[in-house]
Task: structure prediction
Amino acid sequence: MSNLSTRLQQARKAAGLSLRALANLVSLSHAAIKKYEDGEVYPSSDMLLKIAKALKVRVDFFFRPIKVSLKNVKFRKRRKLSWKAEEAIKFDVIGQIERRLELENLYPSPPIAPFELPNSFPQQLNNLEEIESLSEKLREHWKLGLAPIHDLIDALESHGIRVFSVDSSEEYFDGLSTIINEQPIIVICSRWPGDRQRFNLIHELAHYIFNNRLSSELEEEQACNRFAGAFLFPKEAVFQAMGKERRAIEWQELIFLKEQFQLSMGAICYRLKDLKIIQDSYYKSLMIQFRQKGWHRKEPGVAIPSEKAHTFNQMLFHALGEELIGESKAAELLCCSLNQLKAFRQVQKPHAFTHQSC
Result:
């Protein structure tokens, strides 16, 4: 298959369209579309414009070299996420990664340090207590102390973990992790509140760290959840805030901790149970009250702001300022028009670009 035919098939599947559905949108037969995708026939310039419009991509997308394939993709999702939705998310992610790597390669030296685990990390993890210890070692390695991490994406990016955001309306998608060039990639859904995004970010990081490290006694999802809770709310910080044993918890305590550590009240309760600060029976009673109050859908207190992935924009305008790229290339990488870019450079548009398909 040619580059164009591969890109065409990729974009069609990402859009959730069958051969016949795409053919109907551009007034062709499904057999003609199949010939395009098989590389037997090439579409005319006019037809390619129609197809690009129907698939909501830029024409130059079909001619970009294919440099990225996702390895060991692990979705953080619920079972109802459809195959079509997965394909659309992967398509979005690949496009963002391709542009990110293209931008990074324009720098004379790598702008992002490679992700490395401490040499002291064990080769096998046998129980949840070792998972707890592992999170402490990583925080120590990153010199984070016990304080809340207020810009989590920045902390991850500064240690070589590339983070991307997908503007997906799929309610069953939370995030995913994958590997590109032997380096970890984490993707989150932009529509979820910050506390949920933050938990998902570290949960996905755990998937990468745990690769071939978990014993058969440990269930991977449970281990990732334990690591995420421990990394975001370290054991000693929990003990300082709540003590080592409690018979009852005030709701306002949970709200204060949620705002401080930017972790959901539900996750904090689970953390207290994990550390045996509260008994399992009391945790269950708290969760019953949560459901009765409707807090399992929307918790009280101030909503935690969504995490923002801003490294790409920072790198791009750095490259533009240093004349590593020109305005045309910058606009192409940002998936915007040249006029939009110029207005943004003159601060006529005060808000940062949000991700767009291109």
